[in-house]
């Protein structure tokens, strides 16, 4: 009998995960207006991985939020989703998507809300999510697929300790196109 690949089931954090003045938490109703603003950002419209319509109506943001919440129980096409928020105010700062893959691997996609970019938040959030995945969720490897030309994401990956491993062709069902993405990898500490 063929061996079944090990695919992780990621359980949500019981408490928000702390992050130097920020937290990683589950999506909440208070995030709807921030999702609308995030979807209305022209840069988001050009980014294929962000599962937020652009432009984004309030009704679409509510629907996506339900999907992000349901993703933790496997009832959604989205992978488990975490919001990066300011610890004091709870304000939405960014978002992180986790996609379990075979062999104890997680693919991460992330984005920072427009007014919070260029402050190092994405790098810190990526490092903290990886630490949480390695320490508390037994993940062996984290992968990032970054579009060629996305220099900001490349810098985030490199600053967070990821290593460039080459190109990987990705098929995007929504566009029926194939893309050559840059593969960055971070292995669990031994």
Q: Ranges with pLDDT <50 over ≥5 residues?
A: 1-5
The total of beta strands comes to 8
Rg over C-alpha atoms, rounded to the nearest angstrom: 16 Å
Count of separate DSSP helical elements: 5
Strand proportion: 25-35%
How would you classify the helix and strand content by structural class? alpha+beta
The main pleated sheet reads as: 8 strands, mixed
CATH architecture of the domain at 17-144: 3-Layer(aba) Sandwich
Amino-to-carboxy terminus distance: 31 Å
Question: What's the CATH H-level superfamily name of the domain at 17-144?
Answer: Gcn5-related N-acetyltransferase (GNAT)
CATH class of the domain at 17-144: Alpha Beta
Spatial strand order of the main sheet:
1-2-3-4-5-6-8-7
CATH topology name of the domain at 17-144, in short, is Aminopeptidase
Order of helices and strands: EEHHHEEEHEHEE
Overall average pLDDT: 87
Shape: globular
Structure explained in plain terms:
It is built from five helices and eight strands, in the order ββαααβββαβαββ. It has 190 residues and is α+β, with helices and mostly antiparallel strands. It has a domain at 17-144: Aminopeptidase, CATH 3.40.630. It has an eight-stranded mixed beta sheet with strand order 1-2-3-4-5-6-8-7, covered by helices on one side. Helix 1 (32-40) crosses helix 3. The radius of gyration is 16 Å and the shape is globular. The chain starts with 16 loop residues before the first strand and ends with a strand.
């Amino acid at each position: 009998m063929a061996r079944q690949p090990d695919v992780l089931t990621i359980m949500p954090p019981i408490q928000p995960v702390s992050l130097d003045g920020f937290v990683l938490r589950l999506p909440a109703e208070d995030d709807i207006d921030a999702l609308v603003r995030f979807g209305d950002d022209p840069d988001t419209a050009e980014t294929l991985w962000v599962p937020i319509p652009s432009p984004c109506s309030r009704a679409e943001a509510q629907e996506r939020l339900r999907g992000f919440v349901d993703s933790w129980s496997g009832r959604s096409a989205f992978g488990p989703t975490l919001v990066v928020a300011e610890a004091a105010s709870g304000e939405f700062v960014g978002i992180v998507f986790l996609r379990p893959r075979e062999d104890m691997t997680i693919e991460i996609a992330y984005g920072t809300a427009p007014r919070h970019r260029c402050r190092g938040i994405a790098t810190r959030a990526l490092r903290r999510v990886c630490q949480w995945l390695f320490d508390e969720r037994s993940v062996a490897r984290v992968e990032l697929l970054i579009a060629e030309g996305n220099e900001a994401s490349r810098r985030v990956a490199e600053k967070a300790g990821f290593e460039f491993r080459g190109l990987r062709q990705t098929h995007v069902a929504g566009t029926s196109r194939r893309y050559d993405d840059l593969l960055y990898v971070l292995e669990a500490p031994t």
